[in-house]
Structures are given as C-alpha cells and as structure tokens.
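Sample intake sheet
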Amino acid sequence: MADKKKPSTKQPEFPSEKNLDQETTAATTEKVVKGDKKEATAKKETVSDDANVTKQHELDQAEIKKLQALVASNEDKYLRAEAEIQNMNNRFKKEREQLAKYDGQDLAKSVLPVVDNLERALAIDVSDPIGRQLKKGIQMVYDHLESALKEHNVTEIETENKTFDPTIHQAVQTVPVESDQKPETIVKVLQKGYYLKDRVLRPAMVVVAQ
C-alpha cells in the first residue's frame, strides 16, 4: 500500500519589517525621483516659455521702434511739405501784389520817350505866331500826359543840387568841382529819371562834379 504524503507543515513567508522598510524607502525614493523629474521638466518648460516670451517681446519692441521711426519720418516729410506749400503760397501772393502794385510799368516806360520829345520841342524858341500856336498845343499835350503819369504814380526823380546816388542816378559825365560846389553834386540833367511808386522806373542821366 502506497505511503500517504504527509501534509506540509511549512508556514507562508511574510516580509520582514526590514524588507518592508526597504520597499517603502525604495517606493518613496522612486516617487521623489519622479517628482523631481516632473518638476525639472516643468521648470524647463517654464524657462522655455519665458525665453519665448522674452524673444517675442524683443521682436515686438523692435517692430514698435521701426513703426515709430516710420511715423517720425512721415511726420517730418509732412511738415516739410506743408512748409514748402506755405512758402509757395506766400511767394505767389507777393508776386501777385507786386504785379498789381507795379501794373502798367511797361506802358509807362514806353511813354517816357514821348515825354522826352515833347520837352525837347518845348525847349525850342519860336517867335512867329504859327510857331507859338503850335508850341501852345504841344504844351497842352505835355501837361495832360504829365498829369496822367502822376495819377498813375509815375513821378520825377529829384536831381537839382542833389548828391549823386547810384541807385537812382546814372552818371554819364563828370566835371571838375567849382568853388561853390561840393564833390559828388549833380550839376546838370541830361535826361530826367522817374519813379513808379517806390521803384525806379528809369534812372536820371546826369553830369556830376568831382
């Protein structure tokens, strides 16, 4: 008859307190390591995000400066253009005023030789009745013409006993100074000069004592 197996009397093994402590320590260490890795990863991501933000901020600042420079340049161009337009308007206004002020200058210049010829005719001595009558008619024409010129602000430049002024006189001849004369004094007028308002229309042609 076969032998019967005896029931096992071996007790189940339980981890000792030391093993439990080691396992607990290992698990805690693993958790700490994993936590440190996560924290490190999070810090790395945070640093990366901060770097991206800083880089974007720098790009934004550069773009802002670029736009500010563009605005300043356009503003400067606008101010320059506005100033140029204002200068042009002032110049055109002044030119219009000058044209209006000296309107008729060319006509007045054309009339002056006629006045010169009438004065030469009046300077001729006549004795016969016909000559006197003719001279009287010339005098009337001369008086009317002179009056019309004055009405349009064409006036004669004063020369008698005046000191020579190159801005209004033209010296065509000089003579020695006599005892009763001062140097640079006008002693004779060869052709009258005229103003148109405050502008010299024609300088007077004179003889000057020097």
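Comment: The chain has three helices and six strands. The mean pLDDT is 81.
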